[in-house]
Structures are given as C-alpha cells and as structure tokens.
Amino acid sequence: MRTRKLATLVAGVAAVAMLATACSSGSSSNPTTSGGTNGGKASGQALTIGMPNGTQTNNSNPFLNTSAARSLGYAFAIYEPLAEVNDTRPAQDPIPWLAKSWTWNTDYTQIKIVARDGVKWSDGQAFTADDIAYSLQLRKDHAALNNEGLPYKNIAVAGDTVTVDFDSGQYVNQIKVLQLFVVPKHIWSTIADPEHDTNQKPVGTGPYTLTTWTPQAVTLDQNPTYWGGKLAVPQLRYTSYSGNDTLTTALSTGDAQWGWTFISDYQNVYVAKDPAHNKAFFPAGLGIDQLVLNTTKAPFNDVAVRKALNLVVDRKKASEIAEAGIFPELKSVTAIPTPAGDSFIADAYKDKSYAVDVAGAKKVLTDAGYTYSGDKLMGKDGKQVSFVLQDPSGWNDYITSLKLIQDAAKSIGMNASVETPNADTWTDAVNKGNFDAALHWTNAGVTPWEMYSNMFDPAYYQPVGKVAAWNYGRYQNDDAKAAFKAYTDATDDAGRKTALDKLQDIYVSEVPALGIDARPAGAEFSSKYYDGWPSDDNPYANPQPTVANVALILTKLKPAS
Q1: Which of 59, 130, 427, 521 has its CA 20 to 30 A from that of 561?
Q2: Residue 407 CB burial class (10 angstroms; 0-12, 13-18, ≥19)
Q3: What is the pTM of this model?
Q4: 294-312: string of b/e by CB count within 10 Å (b at 16+)?
C-alpha cells in the first residue's frame, strides 16, 4: 500500500509557524488560472461520486453532519472555505480562497480576515465581508452549528476585513478557522431555524449548483458565474450506495469515478479491474478510529469497565482482519499513531504498547467489586454486564471490528451484541448520546491535541438528547477540561508539551474512549475521464469527496489525455 506519513513535531511546528504568518500573498487570481487546470475546456463527461451511506433524505444544510449534503459531500462543491488547507500535509501553505489574506495576533486570540473581492453568490448577489462575519456569528449564536467548538467572542466588520476575537488562544485551531465555510447572509438571515432547516435550494459561491435531488441521485451543474472560471467537469452526480460492497462494485467497474469506501485487498478487487485508470490514495497522519463509550450510563460510566475492555481489545486483529492492513495497527497505549506521532508521546509512555491481558482485565473488574457467575461478569446490580455495539449496515470493516470487540468482551464475561442501523439513524443516535458504544473516526491535526479533543474534550459536552459535535461519549472531567485549555492557551512548546502529557495521562488512566486503529484519509478515483487527482507524487489535498478540499480538487481536474 502506498501511504505517506504526516510529518512529526518539526514539520508540525513549521506548519503552525507558517499559519501564524499566513498573511497570504493576497493574490486575486482565480484557482483555475493559478492552478493550471484546463484552460477553460470541458470534456462534457459527468463525474459520478459515490458514498456507502444508504438512504438519504432531502437535506442540504451544510452545518449538519446528518444532511445529505455532508454525508455525500456535495456541500463542499457549493459552499467554500476561507482557505484551502491540506490537513494531510499541514506543512503545506494554505491556499487563499474566500479569504484573500489573514493575520493572527501574537497570542492567537484574534484573527483579521480580508474577504476576496470579485466573488458572487450563485444567485448573482455580491459576496462581502458581511457574509463571513454572519457565518461566524451563526456558529457563535447556535452551539449546534459550531461543529469546530471554537470559542468565539467578538466578531466585527470594517470594510473588507472581519476581525474575530476568541475567548482563548487558538494556536491549535488555526486550520479549523481557515477551513470554515461561508453561507450567504441575505439567505440565512431569513431562515427561522438554521439548526433544522433543510436548505433545499442552496445558494453558494462554489463551482457547482444543485440542479436536481432524488433519493437515487443528486445532480449539480457548473455555476456559470463562478469566480474561479470554467472547470473541466460540467456536471457532478452523487449517489449513495447501500454499503461498502455495492460502492466497491461501482468504483471497480467505473460506474462511479470518485468515492471513499473500505475495500479489502483493494489492489486485486479494485485497482486490477482497470489498472490504467483505477487509482487510490491513502495519506496517513494523526487520526484514528475510536470506540466511543457512552460514559453517561452503565456499564461505561464505570472506569473499571472501560479499563478492562481496553485491556482485551486486540489492535493487531483490528488492523489486519477488519481493515486488511490498510489502516495501520495502533500500538502506543496513548492511542497516538506511530510513527507519525512518535515525537509527541510522553516519556512515561515511550515504551508502553497495547497488549491483550485477559487476566489483568478480570483483576481490574474484581478489584472494583464485580463478580463472576461461571463465565459471566456480574454487575453490582446482580445482572450480567451487557452493552450494544453499533455502526451502520454496509460499513463492513467497522462491523468486522465490532465483532472482534464483541469477542474480546466475551473473553471477560461481558455480553456484547452488535446492531447495524442505517447511517442516518446511527448518526443521530451518536450525535445525541442514545447509544452504548460505537466505532467512529477522529480528525487528524497538526498534533494529537485534535485527536484527543475529538475523543474526550469536555468543551464539546452536550447532555443526552442534544447534538454534540465531538466527545460523543459525553465525558466530563475538570482536569481534562483544564489540560485542553492549557494547551490552546500555551505560548510556547514547553507549555504545550506539559498539557499534552497531562492529556495522555488522563487518556491512559481514565480510558474515556478506546483507540482502535490508525486511520488514514483515503479515496478511490478513476483517471479515465479526468486527470489531476491528489496522489503520492502530488499530495496537494485530502482526497476524500466529503471534506473541504472538494472545491480545490475540482478546480485541479482536467480532461484525461
């Protein structure tokens, strides 16, 4: 498998230094001319994009991860970010997009954003700094829309410049800020309930506009007034397949030309079907798959149960059996992927690796007051310790991993069952805390702070029934809250190291979630009709079709020779 590892500490520091001085060139050149894509030619061939997420509902709200727009990824062909940031290669310079330039103050509590001129919304109205300010104010006023968990303070506009003040330093969140997409103030200021509105007639600045929406396919056509000029691909067609297997077939046969799904033995099953055109790119970094544990209720409100399960999960099997070796084994007890994260691991854990320990797990449980009736682990209520593991039907790798975890739980007397709801039902349950345990990914950042923050940052806490952006397990811990804040407030590497070491201590001792395997970004795509995709030789973007780099990738595509 061809992968690239994220740079470690030196490159990470360089990336942050780069962002800190990211008063970009301010060039007003458009992405198609500056990116050298296609010179205005169009091949006429539609591009079919697939995801294995099952039945969708007509919802194009870009703020909601339950919407079809986010599930399939077309939100990012319509709505664009302030800058295009390659989060798989954070040392690369961000590309100014809707922001012409930006400047941080010395403690990262303020950013000044200059809006690009010459941009229009797809309904013909001019894009201005007011749109940027309003998009950020929406997030400030509605916690459910603040998916990045940014601590907004004051947001002000003067001419073409937006000044944003934060309650704390945003050293580690610079990428998050630059990746924020912008919505039109003249549309969204009239929406009574932006947290639930389905936004079925989206208006964006992006290269494509929504033409038709059906449960079978979503069609987007080129935006004729796009500020970036004419692109090679005239039309995008999005399809949601029932699961990994059906999308694999579509990608292998060329019925879909871009997507992301787990394909076991992808070289033989996918690439070999059309070796001249079927391509895959899996850039690795500091993201992982985690087993989210609902800490608000039994059995995972007891740290002893969390510790015991952590001791019996076999990460080697998770990597080799569930993920066919495509997702690397997670070895460090800190859950920090190696070698990408080697330099971040605290001295206390440098040589400590995951190892299955059934006897040790049973001792943790009996020391905590649990008992055994034969081979059954009995809770303090006299009943067998039981829980449900769930992930969407069709996500074969995740389901296989859940079954491995189910077997691990059985080895210490727990009764775990596996359920496979559809993707919408699962997403809603995880978001609102109506589950026991579920496999879910984390983002990859410049440092492991991002991964840990996604897993258990109390700043994301929402009570059960309310939508959480991260910390789906609803973990609460004052020490963790202080350590996360100390990291973002730190003004030097020593302060950040102290805070990150503390977070590693909390992860190891409290087990707020279980790291399962290292997770690269990834996508499969065909060069039959279009060239210019991200690759090992040109890793300019995260290749997944559901992230903010979508518009950048679409401007880079050109008709295949």
Answers
A1: 521
A2: middle
A3: 0.77
A4: bbeebbbebebbbbbbbbb
Residue type, 490: A
Average per-residue pLDDT for the chain: 91
The answer to whether the Cα torsion of 425, 429, 431, 436 is positive or negative is negative
Query: Does residue 16 sit in helix, strand or coil?
Result: helix
H or E element: which one contains 250? helix 244-253
**Helices and strands (H, E) in the chain, number of each type:** 18, 22
Which CA distances in Å does 9 have to 169, 210, 423, 457? 20, 42, 36, 22
Separation of first and last alpha carbons in the chain? 26
Please tell me the predicted confidence (pLDDT) of residue 93.
Answer: 86
Rounded Cα gap, residues 126 and 119, in angstroms: 6
* CA dist., res. 280 & res. 271, Å (int): 8
User: Is the distance from CB of 409 to CB of 312 less than 8 angstroms?
Assistant: yes
Peptide bond into 328 cis (omega under 30): no
32 with 228: CB under 8 angstroms?
yes
**Largest separation between any pair of C-alpha atoms in the chain:** 74
The model's confidence at residue 478, banded by pLDDT at 50, 70 and 90, is very high
Residue of 141, 470, 143, 52 lying closest to 287 (CA atoms): 470
**Model confidence band, residue 389 (pLDDT cutoffs 50, 70, 90):** very high
CA distance 68 to 217: 11
What's 329's DSSP letter? B
DSSP states of 428-490: HHHHHT--SEEEEE----SSTHHHHHHHH-GGG---TTSPPSS-TT----HHHHHHHHHHHH-
Q: How many CB atoms lie within 10 A of CB 359?
A: 8
DSSP sequence for 18-51: HHHT---------HHHHHT--TT------EEEEE
Q: Using CA atoms, how far apart are residues 210 and 77, in angstroms rounded to an integer?
A: 9
Rounded Cα–Cα distance for residues 146 and 144 (Å) = 6
